[in-house]
Amino acid sequence: MASFEGVITAMVTPFDDDGRLDADAARQLASHLVDNGSSGLVLAGSTGEASTLADDEKLRLGELVLETVGDRATVILGTGSNDTAHAARLTKAASQLGVDGALVVAPYYNKPNARGVREHFARVAEAAGELAVIVYNIPSRCVINIAPEALAELAAQSPNVVAVKQANSAELGPVEGLDLLAGNDDVFLETLRRGGTGGILVASHVVGNEMRRVLELHIAGEAREASELDARLAPVYAAMSITSNPTPVKAALEMEGLIGAHLRLPMVPADDAERKLVAEAISAFRGGRA
């Protein structure tokens, strides 16, 4: 079963002027990210605007990225839903597609109890077959939290549940049976310090090489240097959350000339004030790198 590590970018989904999936831009962006620090990509996650993507678009995105970088990067597809049957069908389709893993978010809105969460992940993991499953714990979006003890139970009940993207920083720590992945940029280094294997990240769209360097310094035991670089990156991390994700990062990518900043409603592009904050944070970091 696959293990997950390193700088894994939660890739935005590029759209054209008419709001359609932009296949060429998706290929180009995937290549750029892998060339600039990313060891893996998550497609159709929160940053990828999964809630406004149809299943066929998610699978098409998986095909495009596998064709483009599948031989040199880990490719993970978001297949979660608050409808267990839907999540199971999409996860099975992802397995047949040939991706390396499925990112499955905790069931949102319905607010299932702990028993319901266990059964949800058991059904999805069964549908995944040989495909590795990453549990995505993000109570800020899903309302429910999967406690560390419950995460360990999910790993014990389903051998192909192998990792957690932990976006509840208050409960950041090792979980028996699971790779620990940072779910927020600002705790990437802290996750590594607590035994994590990497992170599923957003700022790595624009500072991927530098975030990879944080990882390399940590692995090399250069704790002070890793902390210093992480601290200098902190304003960039913060800029990626000045408003709801992925509005800021899409603005940054447009400024970099990589993709357009088109989003699907109800998400809207950054306004002038938000764009200014994003631009200033990136410019200040790059100006101070030497």
Span between N and C termini?
41 Å
CATH top level? Alpha Beta
Q: Can you count the beta strands?
A: 8
Average per-residue pLDDT, rounded, comes to 97
Instruction: Output the radius of gyration.
Output: 18 Å
Largest sheet: 8 strands, parallel, barrel
Number of domains: 1
Number of helical elements:
11
CATH fold topology: TIM Barrel
* Class derived from helix and strand content: alpha/beta
Strand order of the largest sheet: 1-2-3-4-5-6-7-8
Gross geometry: globular
Low-pLDDT segments: none
Question: CATH H level: which superfamily?
Answer: Aldolase class I
What would you say the CATH architecture is? Alpha-Beta Barrel
Give the tags.
single chain, 290 residues, alpha/beta, TIM Barrel
